[in-house]
Predict the structure of F-box/LRR-repeat protein 15-like leucin rich repeat domain-containing protein.
Amino acid sequence: MVRSEELNLCFQKLVMFGGELRKMQGGVIAEWKDIPMELLLRIMGLVDDRTVIMASGVCSGWRDAICLGLTHLSLSWCKKNMNELVLSLTPKFKNLKSLVLRQDKPQLVDAAVEAIANNCHDLQDLDLSKSFKLTDRSLYALARGCPNLVKLNISGCTSFSDIALAHLTASCTKLKVLNLCGCVRAASDRALEAIADNCRKLQVLNLGWWEDISDKGVSSLAYGCPDLKALDLCGCHRITDESIVALASNCPHLRSLGLYYCKNITDRAMYSLAANSRFKSKRNLWQQPSKNKYDDEGLMNLNISQCTALTPHAVQAVCDSYPALHTCPGRHSLIISGCLSLTSVHCACTFQSHRAATMQAH
């Protein structure tokens, strides 16, 4: 099987050769313009995005086909001149549904995001993570031009305000996945209330290091976003048990909860999670069984690292209530690092292996 690196190299040579042919034949390449669009796009799917962009310049036929058919693009490989590349490409690639602009060294500026918003109105998935040069101008532009966003990653964008974020959510009401980790200037209860009011379909939300939010904001999320499946509250040290009680009571689909360094969380929160699981189990006895096997598993990931106020009995109650939580090697989904008092907490696998070992010994 040909490796992707070899395929990219061969295709790049083909692109370069095409340029020479155009010079020799006056820009007429009969063999290439007859390639069916479907076949060309299938070939594009086998090479990297840099090569796709090169191929769009081979001839007008290829350019039109790629511009029409390209729906997913990543420019994370671009180490220099990303803004210029975005400005030149977005007027051509207007059918983009997914665009990744994640950067190691921040380059992106508001003008580039405005170009995206002005041209890519069908965009559903956008990754702008680590773009701390961006300002509220970018969020206002996205609100105006990209109302179909379903997934947005603006983690590490430290200049966005809560007002601009609220404005974005008022227009992008289809959001299901939202990564706001490290958006410290936007971190407020007002922003969370706007998300709860506008994004009722939200399923995944990362609020890592939103240190200024309180139970008021998280509780509004619990009431406004009942479809939440994953919520990361790491570093949100002001929240208390009230937030977890609200989530346990109102978000029945919650599968992943991050509470790293939430030191005000106590046993009451754990018992609330455990009680919610037992209630659901009893209710399901007379309800029609779910078609999705995961619907009955409840919490599958729980991070309570550095939550030093918790006791083993309360955490064990949660572990016993949710069979998908594991402490066994290779399957750690109940993360308790930094909590020395919780070393006695174990999942059912540990007891089963101990029982099996005992039976074999006898």
Summary: Residues 86 and 245 are 45 Å apart (CA to CA). Strands lie at 72-74, 98-100, 125-127, 151-153, 177-179, 204-206, 230-232, 256-258, 301-303, 334-335.
